[in-house]
Amino acid sequence: MSTGYGSHGLENGAESGKRKHREIAPPPVAAATISDGGFQAWATVAGSFLIMFCGFGYSSSFGVYQDFYVRTYLLQSSPSAISWIGSVNIFIVLSGGFIAGRLYDRGYFYTLMYSGSFLMVLSLFALSFAQRNKLYQVFLAQGIANGIGAGMTYVPCMAVISHHFQKRRALALTLVASGSSLGAVVHPIMLNNTLHSTRLGFANAVRVSAGLLSGLLLLACCLMRTRLPPPKTSLRLGQTLSKFARDGAYVAATLGLGIFTVGFYYPLFYLQLDATKHGLDPTFAFYSLVIMNSASFAGRLAPGIVAQRLGVARMITAASACGAVLILGMIGVRSEASVVVVGVLYGFVAGSVVTLMGPLLVVLTEDMSELGARMGLSVAFSGAPSTGPPIDGLLLTSKFIWWRPALFSGVMALAGFGCFATMLVLHGGSQRRRRAGAPEPVVVELPKIKGCDV
């Protein structure tokens, strides 16, 4: 007998007790399907590639400016003071990633892209009006304004790839990151030929760069698109930091990125000046940075081919160890052959490290709604130690004692490798615990409602 309830009724308790209808708890709402390809997905990759080409790729070319400022344009300033321009630029690019990452998570992707691109172009036009021996003018335009513009776009242009790719995300991020390496090849060639041109001069040379970037950034903004809505809720800053701090592998990776960065920029900032001061052919010295950045371009493509097989965490740990050894090897740079060897090998390794930063943070992130904040925090921490080049300049002194900065940078890079090795151990342990302690599906015993299928 059943008790009426509208047009339906519940079966009596004795009968329902005999029948144990098993009902599996409803699955969570499925996430939006990620295409892992298609025109819009690859167009977004192309746009992000151009953002990296114009942003971090241009910042990575500061070695050309360092050489030009020290020997020609800012003769009244020391190498250490001049290196603060590039260091502060990269510091803002990376440290601004935490703010940009949180804004990205809240749905401000297009605002960040448009505003950052405009500011990058505006800063270069402002730099073209900087007067000779006016360090503060160059610092404000190139160090501050350009850094803010590039920092607004750096993390979002990588994080947006997660909207379009899942299985092929490592490959897509590798292609995006390679944009900065290609930029670090093209920009030095153009700058070395325009800055030293008697026909153009400093102002027009910088305006040529500004014109190139304006066209490429406009195209990039037209290509990139988001697909997924921002999360409805987000943790407060204190809650976010507290949650991230409990992830040992993430903390070790963030420390590794930060400490390794202290030594990372020494070859990028000083290889060309090193070659010049050691009396090598001026034309060869101009292209020493191009040699390094060309190898870096190849190094940024390589992880996309082998990362799935070897693992992102293992690759960045091995690359950081090789990078530390090569930085120490700069102590012995004396000839063209040694410049080529260090440039090619370090360029390849450095390119791999930079490319693997993004995929590493993706691998260490379980909740993709936190990806922007996690990337931003780690990238910001890696920007804080960009005081490395000014310290290198102080150690170098006006007498150009080259072994001091090479030793300091190499030791810091080795310490970063130690953090990556710790991350590798912790990440492997957490993966084993998750596999061993995976919970069984939740099964709930409920009485069946007559006439209603569930």
UniProtKB/TrEMBL annotation:
The chain crosses the membrane at residues 41-61, 81-101, 108-130, 136-161, 170-190, 210-228, 249-272, 284-303, 315-333, 339-364, 371-388, 400-426. It is found in: Membrane. InterPro entries: MFS, MFS_trans_sf, Proton-linked_MCT. GO terms for cellular component: membrane. GO terms for molecular function: transmembrane transporter activity. Keywords: Membrane, Transmembrane, Transmembrane helix. It is a multi-pass membrane protein. It holds the Pfam family MFS_1. It comes from the Eukaryota. Belongs to the major facilitator superfamily. Monocarboxylate porter (TC 2.A.1.13) family. PANTHER family: EG:103B4.3 PROTEIN-RELATED, MONOCARBOXYLATE TRANSPORTER. This is MFS general substrate transporter.
